[in-house]
Amino acid sequence: MITIVLLGAGNVAKHLYEAFLPLNLVKVIQCYNRKGVQIHENQEGVFVTNNLNDLKEADVYILAISDDAVVEVSNKLPFQNRLVVHTSGSVPMKSMNSKNTRGVFYPLQTFSATKKVDFTTIPFCIEAEQEKHSALLETLASQLTKKIYAISSDQRNTLHVAAVFINNFTNHLFSIGSDICKEHNIPFEILHPLILETAKKAIEMNPDNAQTGPAIRNDVQTINRHLKILKDDSQKQLYNLLSQAIQTKYGKKL
Amino acid sequence: MITIVLLGAGNVAKHLYEAFLPLNLVKVIQCYNRKGVQIHENQEGVFVTNNLNDLKEADVYILAISDDAVVEVSNKLPFQNRLVVHTSGSVPMKSMNSKNTRGVFYPLQTFSATKKVDFTTIPFCIEAEQEKHSALLETLASQLTKKIYAISSDQRNTLHVAAVFINNFTNHLFSIGSDICKEHNIPFEILHPLILETAKKAIEMNPDNAQTGPAIRNDVQTINRHLKILKDDSQKQLYNLLSQAIQTKYGKKL
């Protein structure tokens, strides 16, 4: 049995709590958040506190809190030599206070409040100062998923940049598609299958092999016609820069 | 029974041929391409020609050929007053020769040679000069999918721009993610679930509501750290411009 104190009341904390709930090998024995509120409807017998001095002894303390708060909370913990991990994609493990032994338990996925999470599909990036704690975190993650990766703080930092391109920036391109449709009274749903297929194709055949479109074909006529259609400056700039980027990348290879 | 002469030997022609093959209501009676080659292993009894003068009489001639070739081939057709449609996202219907009655039969999806296509998930954009031909094209499309949209040439042109953002440019962002991983010895597969979830989320909750990340949070510290990690100029420029675009878009709304 791995006992856990779970700190935080955001999406990651809530989804982790729910995922741990049915497990026999894992028990969340306490939750902490600043307001001392329940984070799940089924919290019978799991003490919630807003006082770090009340934290119980556990095998692992999971700081599922905002990036900015990780260091501060790690400083305020009123104990030492225990395993403290955070769930952040971008905070270096060693930025946490060294009075405790440190680790990272980072689920690489985008979470939202409303959408149920299937942890079996989510990769966990694990890091720990001590070998035995890597093993413990791996055991913990293995209760949720088969996708477990040993990732250093430097690698995780890099992964986070890649994730910004793949999630945040991609979503912005989707939103531009949606705006263009709205302006011209076209239902955006017509593009839904293309969104899904674009993702699937990049996974199945590697994005470099999946690249198509006027930019890689150097189809100047189509590019110019598209630029004329775009009224918004930001959309125009992005169309230009992304087309250039594609031409630079694949032009080099030709 | 709708009889078809299918022109072209690319991905769209091949996938359409395969999709029409099992249908009772539809029959491809002839294929044309410049080399006069078979486009499918099962072409028994379907005459293939490389001579436009040999084209048989059919209910509809589908030009599933490259955008650049559509006008030229429409000019060269040795008959008139028949229904000629193309499958292109960006060629205006009326750019085809007016000696025939014209239409568009545009499947809005990205096709590749190797990947099998499930047409039931693919939206068809339909346009025709005459009402009765719109109805015929709708009947034809309805054999393949329930997603049928009447879309004008102007709207289709606009849709094509949106599709470039959603497919071509998004795929380039995925390829940047892949490059970043490669440089730092991180398996790209770790980001596969995020790619899929990003697409699903944009479909389920509208991309504007799904936007997250350092740009929309105006998390300058993280943005600067990410810019330091990026070595490639093109990646840096895109990171900057996409972050600005997100801030401009959602800054306005706040």
Number of helical elements of chain A: 9
Report the average pLDDT across residues of chain A.
Answer: 94
Report the CATH architecture of the largest domain in chain A: 3-Layer(aba) Sandwich
CATH topological fold name of the largest domain in chain A: Rossmann fold
> Oligomeric status of the shown chains?
homodimer
Task: Return the CATH class of the largest domain in chain A.
Answer: Alpha Beta
Name the shape of chain A in a single word: elongated
| Backbone CA Rg of chain A | 23 Å
Helix content of chain A: 40-55%
Runs of chain A in which pLDDT lies below 50 for 5 or more consecutive residues are none
Number of DSSP strands of chain A?
8
In terms of DSSP E residues, the strand content of chain A is 15-25%
CATH superfamily membership of the largest domain in chain A: NAD(P)-binding Rossmann-like Domain
Ends distance of chain A: 57 Å
Largest sheet of chain A: 8 strands, mixed
Overall tally of domains of chain A: 2
Largest interface, C-beta closer than 8 angstroms, per-chain residues: A-B, 91 and 90 residues
